[in-house]
Design goal:
CATH architecture of the largest domain: 3-Layer(aba) Sandwich
CATH superfamily of the largest domain: von Willebrand factor, type A domain
Number of strands: 19
Radius of gyration: 20 Å
Amino acid sequence: MRTSFRVVALLSCLSPLAFTQQNPPASTAAPSQAPPSSGSGAVITQRPAYNAPVTSSGKGSIQLNVTVTDKSGRVVSGLDQSAFTLLDNNQPAKILSFHAYNGAVQPPPVPVQVIILFDLVDTPFDNVSYARQQVDKFLRQNGGHLAQPVSIYWLTDQGVDVQAEPVLDGNGLADHLEATSGRLRMINRNAGAWGAIERYQFSVKMLTAIAGNEADKPGRKLLIWAGPGWPQLDDPGLNYSDKGQQSLFHQIVDLSTLLRKAHIDLYSVSQGVSGIGTFIYQSYLKEVKKPGQTSPPDITLKVLAVQSGGLVLPPSNDLAGAIDTCVQDAGAYYTISFDPPPADGPNEYHELKVRIATPGLTARTNTGYYNQPLAK
């Protein structure tokens, strides 16, 4: 098994939200993002910009990964382009290219990569331990023969610790997981609302670092986030300034765009049972078109998962089964590309819908994108 390396985000472009609260504590510094002093591996720094690969013949074209399911949630293969209608702001958009992929019968040019991320920042220790056992179960099923290459990420207070290379050997990856998990420590959380703010900001920065690290790598990625995700910060006692709203809006635009261009579908799985707060995220799925509409829950794990075309699975004690459900999306899917219309100004939001002609079938893909004027 190869050694791991560190991904550390240094995101000067993502300034912290300007939260205000009565009687704030004296210190609200974010957790350290410096790499540890010991250990091997390279440090990869988040880049402020990158050149995304062209996905069709159209200049500035957008490629979408589309998963089609039936009423029972099973992935559907075997459709042709005539079954698909793409709507951009409820207007039909011309499909420039179409490809259907179906496992070994019609595999994609680059295998779909499955990334399983253990969130040690936002997850209680006992839940992390149980999640490790469940991921071990997932990796060792079918004799350890994985249908898709899998890698393991750890979100810690030091950044994101990444398995060096995705593999198909589930037994070997499980052995490596068992050997390395003991050296990882939990973040030292501050109590109360300010600790939640730290974890919120840190987790968003780390997800952005992951997307930036994957942006230049070809192929689709399923990022399965094992943990409840960072705090939603929907407490009415928390306020934020106009500058904070501007910063949050730009974070939403940047992260949404980066996830799409990196071809990352985000999935949320966690241990437990559904409670009062399980479905609060559904109140924040509506598009954010301008800074004045923003609030912190607009950029939380479950909201981003739905908007990326991934899934939010309810809490369960069968995490291995939940991961299996997510990975099914890699077995059969479609790609379509289109040219966005001219934008009237920067960060112009466009809603996306893919309709399937066959009754009873539903398509999941990116729910929208932020259009930009063409560079002169």
